[in-house]
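Re: Re: ligand-bound prediction request (bumping)

Still looking for help on this. To restate: I need the protein modeled with pyridoxal-5'-phosphate bound, output as structure tokens. Inputs repeated here so nobody has to scroll up.
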Amino acid sequence: MDTKTAIENLDRVIAEVETARLSVSHHHIVKIIGISKYSTAQDIEKLYEAGQRAFGENKVQDLKQKSETLEEFPLEWHFVGRLQKNKINNLIDLNPTLMQSLDSLELAQELQKKLESKSKNMSCLLQINSAYEESKTGILPEDAISTYKTILDTCPNIKLKGVMSIGAHVEDEEAIIKSFKTTHAIFKELEPLGAIYCSMGMSNDYELAIKCGSNMIRVGSALFK
Ligand SMILES: *Cc1c(COP(=O)(O)O)cnc(C)c1O
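Reply:
Sorry for the wait, this slipped through. Here it is.
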């Protein structure tokens, strides 16, 4: 990807985000995370030059490699993938800005143990499987509030900041909207408990997600094409 392409891609996404967010409210601010999992450190650098600062990876090894390569830049790094138990320590050592894919109570408890033993904290989002898709991990909507509270009560080193979900993987727009609305309703219920991020929307559906209340979008292919 050359500099011109990076600027064009970012400008297009920013313009579309702007229209979508203003249709909600002038005060509805949306944070864009560039998901760089299919891209190189060089591409990330091009987007950095265009103004993008927050990036996300779905594999601990890639997060390590790219964040170390780009150490000199003031970037923030998010983790958005399925976290295997044997990679927890590696992720903790990388100090991610936000771990968005806390997808079970069991993983939370495992993470808590390891954070405690290293005297570290980690900011996380609880991943909700709001489309009820078997291929996806995450907490089912009906269990989301109680699981969130249990983590707040029993995992002091995990700093919960909200929820994340992946929209329904279907053509039917109504079904996608329904899954976003489900996640957003959970987010609203969790706001009094300190939730600040409702992370939903990817390259194909971020405008829809923002209109359903998303304030954090995870954009890969639309930025890195
Ligand atoms: C890959 C990925 C994205 C970005 O997907 P695009 O469709 O390329 O925008 C967002 N969120 C998660 C969890 C991902 O794994």
